Amino acid sequence: MYKFFFFFLVIFFLPGCNDTFYSSIPNAPVNFICSLAQSPYVIITTTNQFFTVQKTSSGFSGINTAGQKISGNKYGFYFGYGGILVGNSAFNGYCAFDLACPYEYKEYNKKVSVELQTDGIGTAICPVCQTKYDLNNGGIPKEGDSKERLKPYKVTLFMENGVENIAVSN
Fold first, then answer.
1. CB neighbourhood size of 76 (10 A)
2. Of 70, 120, 122, 64, nearest to 93 (Cα)?
3. DSSP string computed for 2-71
């Protein structure tokens, strides 16, 4: 009797536990750490706030939802395929996504980065296909051609020397 019950559990429930997410965006290394006590990153300690970072020839640059520019010359960081978008979603807490638009990559094999809107409602828009992504709802498309959400990354909150930090990885 117990063998049958165990077999039933394995056959019917284990396949449903797979929470992997397939993305059309190619895998690329992600490794970014920042202190939530420092400007301009402190903005994401408030819900519904986000920032972007992309690799440049001299380090990285980006913008946050308040319109503040972000830049740094830290090497050893990796920013995914198209850059990363990090934030504090109103529904899911800290989150991160690849900036590459899945529709543009899947349909045209082009790397096009979505643009963070400074509207304060957690939206990113692809400048080419005009798809609007809802950052508060897991990066799902809420308007436009794309049917695929932005590629998510793992976010870890940790304390170091009494200061909250956030790490983004894959």
1. 7
2. 122
3. HHHHHHHHHHHHGGGG------SSPP--EEEEEETTSTTGGGGGSTTEEEEEEEETTEEEEEBTT--EEE
Give the pair of three-digit tokens for residue 138.
């897991």
Q: In whole angstroms, what is the distance from residue 2 CA to residue 16 CA?
A: 21
Contact 23, 153 (CB under 8 A): no
Q: Which residue has the higher pLDDT, 109 or 13?
A: 109
The per-residue pLDDT for range 134-169, each reduced to its tens digit, is 999 999 999 999 999 999 999 999 999 999 999 999
Which tens digit of pLDDT belongs to each residue from 29-52? 999 999 999 988 999 999 999 999
CA-angle at 136, arms to 18 and 142, nearest 5°: 90
Q: Which residues pair with 13 in a beta bridge?
A: none
- Do strands 152-160 and 93-98 pair parallel, antiparallel, or not at all (unpaired)? antiparallel
- Residue 20 confidence (pLDDT): 59
What DSSP state is assigned to residue 102? H
